[in-house]
Amino acid sequence: ASLERGRSEFKAAELGNLASHPALLGDDRRAATRLHTRSARLEVQAKRLEEQVTGLRRQAQQLESEAERLEADHQAAADHVRKQAVLRRSLWERLAALAI
User: Fold this and answer.
1) d(CA 92, CA 83)
2) pTM for the whole thing?
């Protein structure tokens, strides 16, 4: 019976329905009210954290996309430098052939 009463009191506190539950009196009622208030604050905090995590995940995806784009740009620039080196070497060879 005591366990059932405790569950009932917890359920009333959980639902915020403290006024309609006569079993909660005095210190128990204040403690239940504090727990309910803390629970509500934690829920708000959890929601804020969830929103922050969502924002951070979005930022991480954007950074990953930017990193991929920069890597592709880097590869394109490296290819261009290699082609220029081949052309430069060819031009030097032609210049040397003309000088003979």
Assistant:
1) 14
2) 0.54
pLDDT tens profile 62-98: 999 999 999 999 999 999 999 999 999 999 999 999 9
Task: Report how far residue 81's alpha carbon sits from residue 73's, in angstroms, rounded to the nearest whole number.
Answer: 12
Q: From CA 16, how far away is CA 13, in angstroms rounded?
A: 5
First to last CA, the chain: 112
Cα separation of 78 and 96, whole Å? 27
The answer on pLDDT for 60 being more than 90 is yes
